[in-house]
Amino acid sequence: MVIQQPSNQIKLTNVSLVRLKKGKKRFELACYKNKVLEWRSGIEKDLDNVLQIPSVFLNVSKGQTAPSAELAKAFGKETSVDDIILEILRKGELQVGEKERTAQLERVHNEVVSIITSKLVDPRTKRVYTPGMIDKALDMLSSMAHQNQQQQQQHTDKTSNPSTAPGTPSTSEPGESKPNRPSHLPTWTGVVTTKSAKSQALDAMKALIAHQPIPVARARMRLRITCSTNVLKQPVKAPKAPASAEGGGDSGEHKAPGTVKDKILSFVEQVESQDVVGSEWEVVGFVEPGAFKGLSDFVGGETKGQGRVEVLDMAVTHED
Length: 320
Known about the structure:
The chain is of the alpha+beta class. It is built from nine helices and eleven strands. The protein has helices at residues 35-40, 68-75, 81-91, 98-119, 131-160, 197-211, 229-232, 260-267, 289-302; strands spanning 15-22, 25-32, 57-59, 64-65, 93-95, 120-121, 217-218, 221-228, 270-277, 280-287, 307-313. Strands 9-10-8-11 form a four-stranded antiparallel β-sheet. It has a three-stranded antiparallel β-sheet with strand order 2-1-5. A hairpin with a 4-residue loop joins strand 3 (57-59) and strand 4. Helix 4 (98-119) crosses helix 6. Residues 1-8, 168-182 and 244-254 have low confidence and may be disordered.
């Protein structure tokens, strides 16, 4: 029987674990809370501030360090302990307590709401919503998504387990109402800790705009577009119309879009000012964010370097 003496006991408190399974063995590192994420994001550089003990464990809670033979078998004989620690930190799964996980979720959620608040507006007044309103709208979306999932599961259960009653059809009748199945529209089920707040905010905005639990629209961008007057009146080549199956349908939708100036103005939702300065035409106006790439590509390609697009304001909102 092993007698636990202070000399051979390793007691760790306030610890976060990073686990990595390699070669049928699970290896663990004992780290300080929150420091692993800071190290992965590049904020923290000193490993001494990340690791509680610079050793690789088989079981941190029991204080069982990994034998050198096990490390060599899993990671290779030529791999040093420092390199093994770095690999576990990079690729391992971070284990945190329930309180820490809840706090992390709340932090990401607040960041997502903050990003959405700065990007979405009421389309009628162009004013921003309060974080509370955005929060409620996201709750409505997540509830809707969970209800759809439950309805789809119930529908799947019914079709996979037909009724035992005689004469009961196993499939729905043509006129029977079917559950509201998830469609191609984006959905929102809540924040996670495995994705960045920015990417999750973009997903949430797509769902809010698609489902409109409250009236929302992307805040418009304010741009300055300049172009040489030499190319303004040049005609824009119309895209080739796809061949019609009947051979010769209505071609009205494929007419030439006009001149370069007409095409540029078609991207601008609202013109704030328009002027000719010397040999350059300049227009300042508001553009939907989704149209920015198309406008930028058109100006860059059609004008052959004689035009440019400048962003004056990424998101124009009214807060008063």
